[in-house]
Amino acid sequence: MRTAVPPVACVGEPRLTAGFAEYGRLDLLAHEEVHGPIGPMEPAQLLRLAEGMQLKGKGGAGFPFARKLRAVLESCERQDLAAVVVVNATEGEPASWKDKVLLTRAPHLILDGAALAAYALDADEIVIGVADDGVGRDSLMDALEERRMPVQTTIVTVPHRFISGEGGALVNGINGLPHIPPGTKKRSSDSGVSGLPTLLSNAETYAQLAVGARLGPYEYAALGTDDEPGTVLLTVTGAAGRPAVVECTAGMPLRDVLDLCEVPEIQGILMGGYHGKWITPEAAETAEVSRKGLAAVGGTLGAGIIIPLGVDTCPLGEAAQVVRYLAGESAGQCGPCKMGLPDLARAVDLAVAGSQPADVVRAAAGEVKGRGACSHPDGTARFALSAIEVFAEDLRLHSTGDGCGRRVKGVMGLPGAPDENPQKLTLDWSRCDGHGLCAHVVPDFIRLDANGYPAFPPTPVPTWLREGALKAVKVCPELALRLAKAE
């Protein structure tokens, strides 16, 4: 369970993090002293503000906030229903901390933005989704006790899982359903919480809205680029000597952020998180921190996550661990997630082991892209494909079967402690009669070859498949299959 919020740093003028150095956490009095007063806005006024700010969602997808707001307003009028405002502060991705920082240190900015939206929509309720890791919830509750919100405001706790942070999964959880994405794609602006038109956006998005409401669109745009005004919150971890949540001006050189966080020599950087893309060290030298700037070098801003990899770890091994984790985080309700992602994880494992070419990874990724009930298969495929492209030379070394000579240090921010007792399957060929029972027990890891004999990667069994591997060992009639400590 996550408990310690990382340090906060700023490159340029602070906005979301204003007052942090003086106050630490901003209670209501400190918040009003630092940011000043704020008043309600009518729908047309708030729409003009959001459009003038060019405000886009900060949860990863980057969808224009004004379009969401307009869609909810039109849906309320068309259906003659009240609206609900939902703040997604779940931050289900283990590598992200920016929303947790806002919850713990600037909760009133989030509440200001939600209150602005609720007033403009004449909403019945505000619902704030937080993770059950305990980080930020108490601070948010204290903030709600310090002030008066325009409508009933409730906090809903959801499991701290990767897919629980997906918008549809959050709406499901609020409605008392399983905390997984819905099986079919539908717009929350038409039917969300309790079947009502729902404005759903990320915690940072509401905080940016509150900053923009005080500054106005023109002063807000004094920082940033013409296409992406304002500031950006980033979570910098991995090989950084000083991991931190950093607020920086949009369009700033990525190199400035890396220097601030004391990032050493690197092999590559994951931009945007586990559903993001890798970029090369050379690309990092020229990249700008913006959606457009990062896209120009093959990266993505995503949810503002930056994970540099030092030269002392195996990059493909690190990537394989993430793909396994993402496969285990599947909702398991559609084919691409339930079967395709384990296939992809297995293909990456085999490529790292040098027993299959990269084309197998590309084929497995192609099987899931664009076919899922949510964006999880697409994001996982994007991550895997990006890894084999950026680390092509490393992949060539692995293809010889000898590997790159570096151990996997586990620096990607995955939940839980590293596996202290890695185990792998071994097969006594003198005993195996090709019954095939093991492949039926754990098909995600063991397959039958053309002759009907079991085939599996020589890499350690992923922890999320360990139980299945044990069952496979137990059902082997010839006692040919064994689970041994991986060297």
Automatic annotation (TrEMBL):
<dbReference type="Pfam" id="PF13459">
    <property type="entry name" value="Fer4_15"/>
</dbReference>
<comment type="similarity">
    <text>Belongs to the complex I 51 kDa subunit family.</text>
</comment>
<dbReference type="InterPro" id="IPR037207">
    <property type="entry name" value="Nuop51_4Fe4S-bd_sf"/>
</dbReference>
<dbReference type="Pfam" id="PF10589">
    <property type="entry name" value="NADH_4Fe-4S"/>
</dbReference>
<keyword id="KW-0004">4Fe-4S</keyword>
<protein>
    <submittedName>
        <fullName>Ferredoxin</fullName>
    </submittedName>
</protein>
<keyword id="KW-0288">FMN</keyword>
<dbReference type="InterPro" id="IPR011538">
    <property type="entry name" value="Nuo51_FMN-bd"/>
</dbReference>
<dbReference type="Pfam" id="PF01512">
    <property type="entry name" value="Complex1_51K"/>
</dbReference>
<dbReference type="InterPro" id="IPR019575">
    <property type="entry name" value="Nuop51_4Fe4S-bd"/>
</dbReference>
<keyword id="KW-0285">Flavoprotein</keyword>
<keyword id="KW-0411">Iron-sulfur</keyword>
<keyword id="KW-0479">Metal-binding</keyword>
<feature type="domain" description="NADH-ubiquinone oxidoreductase 51kDa subunit iron-sulphur binding">
    <location>
        <begin position="316"/>
        <end position="360"/>
    </location>
</feature>
<dbReference type="InterPro" id="IPR037225">
    <property type="entry name" value="Nuo51_FMN-bd_sf"/>
</dbReference>
<keyword id="KW-0408">Iron</keyword>
<dbReference type="InterPro" id="IPR050837">
    <property type="entry name" value="ComplexI_51kDa_subunit"/>
</dbReference>
